[in-house]
Design a protein that fits this description.
364 residues; alpha/beta; Isopropylmalate Dehydrogenase; ten-stranded mixed β-sheet; two-stranded antiparallel ribbon; binds adenosine-5'-triphosphate
C-alpha cells in the first residue's frame, strides 16, 4: 500500500526557489522508485518578498498548510533590504518554531574523506556528530522583549523543566537511533555553563534526571567554552551534544565552519507533532538569481526529512532513501568534479543537483 505524505514547501526568498526546484525533483525521483510511499508538495508563500508585496510575511493560509502537512521543507526566508516597521528582519521560520513548538534543533556535523575542511584530519579520520539545540526558549525567549534604558540593557534567559525534559528525551532517543544504525556511540553530552549560572545548573540537573531513564546509553557533561575548543581539536570524539538555544546557535555555525562552510550544513527543527527541514544558510541575496547557489545543504535537509518521516511512520524504504540521498551528496563532494563555487568548484546549482540525481540513479 502506498502511504502518501503531504509536504509543505516554503521556497522563500533569495536563492530559495533555485535550490528548492532541484530538491523537489530529486525527492520525486526517489519516491517514484518506491511502492510504499509517495510525496505530494504544496507551496506555501511566505517571507520577505511576500511581505514587501502583500504586507504579510506568514499568511494564515500558509501557516495552515504547514500545520496540516506531514513535514515542512523550507529553503530560506528574509532579505536584509526588507524589514518590519520596527527595523527587525522578516523571519517567519522563527514564528514557525514557536507556533509549532519545534523545540529540538538538529544540526548534524559531518566531514567525510575528500570534503574540504579547515581542520587537519589524519588519513581515514572522519567527523560525524549531531548538535541538538533547544529552539523555543533559552536566551532567545527574550527576543523582542529585552529592556533597554539609556544606561543599561537586560535580556532574560528562560529554561523550563517541561521543555528541557522533552529536549533531553529527544536527544537520548536520537543517540539510541544512531547507535542502532551504527553511526553513533550511544553517548549524549549536555553542553552548559553550570559552573557559573544557576539556570545551567538547573538544566544539567534535569539532564541527569532524564539520563537515568536511559541507563544503557552514556551521559556526560561539558562546558560550552571547552566544547568550542574540542570541536576544533578533537571533534571525532563527539556523538550527540545537547544544549541551550543561544549556545546552540553559536556552536552550529562553528559546526558549519568545520564542514567547509554553510553549503553543506543541513538542519531540522523538530517537535512532537511537526518538523521543519531547512539548510542552515540564509537567502544569500548576493548570489540570488545567478544559478550558482549550492543546493547540497537543502538536499541534505530533504534527506533528514525522509529519515524522520520514515522513522516516525515505520517505513524502512523511506529511511534508507534518506541515507541513500545523503550518501549521494557526499559521494559527489568526495568525487570533487561537480562542485559549486563555495566548495571550490565552478559548477552551477543545476549541474550539482544533477550529479546527485545521477548518483541516486546509479544506486537504484
Ligand atoms: P541569515 O541571517 O538569513 O542566516 P546570513 O546573513 O547569515 O543569513 P547567508 O544568506 O547565509 O547569510 O549568506 C552568507 C554568505 O554565504 C553569503 O556570501 C552567501 O552568498 C553565501 N551562501 C549562503 N548560502 C549559500 C549557498 N547555498 N551556496 C553558495 N553560497 C551561499
Amino acid at each position: 500500500m502506498v502511504q502518501s505524505f503531504e509536504i509543505a514547501v516554503f521556497e522563500g526568498d533569495g536563492i530559495g526557489p533555485e535550490i528548492t526546484a532541484p530538491t523537489i525533483r530529486i525527492l520525486e525521483a526517489l519516491a517514484k522508485q518506491q511502492q510504499d510511499y509517495g510525496l505530494a508538495f504544496s507551496k506555501a508563500p511566505a517571507g520577505a518578498a511576500h511581505y514587501a508585496q502583500t504586507g504579510e510575511s506568514l499568511p494564515v493560509a500558509s501557516m495552515e498548510t504547514a500545520r496540516n502537512a506531514d513535514a515542512i521543507l523550507l529553503a530560506a526566508m528574509g532579505l536584509p533590504s526588507v524589514r518590519y516597521q520596527d527595523g527587525t528582519e522578516i523571519s517567519p521560520q522563527l514564528d514557525l518554531r514557536i507556533e509549532l513548538d519545534l523545540f529540538a534543533g538538529v544540526r548534524p556535523v559531518r566531514v567525510v574523506q575528500g570534503q574540504p575542511t579547515p581542520l587537519k584530519l589524519s588519513g581515514g579520520q572522519s567527523i560525524d556528530f549531531v548538535l541538538i539545540r533547544e529552539s523555543t526558549e533559552g536566551l532567545f525567549f527574550s527576543m523582542g522583549k529585552g529592556a533597554v534604558s539609556k544606561d543599561e540593557a537586560r535580556e532574560t534567559l528562560l529554561i523550563t523543566r517541561k521543555t528541557s525534559e522533552k529536549l533531553f528525551r529527544f536527544a537520548f532517543d536520537y543517540a539510541q537511533q544512531r547507535k542502532a544504525l551504527g553511526t553513533g556511540k550511544g553517548r549524549v553530552t549536555c553542553v552548559d555553563k553550570a559552573n557559573v549560572f544557576r539556570a545551567f545548573a538547573f538544566f544539567r540537573e534535569i539532564f541527569d534526571g532524564v539520563a537515568k531513564e536511559y541507563s544503557h546509553l552514556i551521559a556526560d557533561h561539558a562546558y560550552v567554552d571547552a566544547t568550542a575548543l574540542w570541536m576544533v581539536e578533537k571533534p571525532w570524539l563527539f556523538d550527540v551534544l545537547v544544549t541551550e538555544n543561544m549556545f546552540g546557535d553559536i556552536l552550529s555555525d562553528l559546526g558549519a565552519g568545520i564542514m567547509g562552510g554553510l553549503g553543506l550544513a543541513p538542519s531540522a527543527d523538530i517537535g512532537l507533532n511537526h518538523a521543519v527541514f531547512q539548510p542552515c544558510h540564509g537567502s544569500a541575496p548576493d548570489i540570488a538569481g545567478k544559478g550558482v547557489a549550492n543546493p547540497f545543504a537543502m538536499i541534505l535537509s530533504a534527506a533528514m526529512m525522509l529519515d524522520w518521516l520514515g522513522t516516525k511512520h515505520n517505513i524502512e524504504t523511506m529511511v534508507s532513501d534518506g541515507a541513500k540521498l545523503r550518501d549521494a551528496v557526499y559521494q559527489v563532494v568526495a568525487d570533487g568534479s561537480v562542485l559549486t563555487r563555495d566548495l571550490g568548484g565552478t559548477s552551477g546549482t543545476e549541474a550539482a543537483a544533477e550529479a546527485v540525481l545521477e548518483q541516486i540513479t546509479a544506486r537504484a
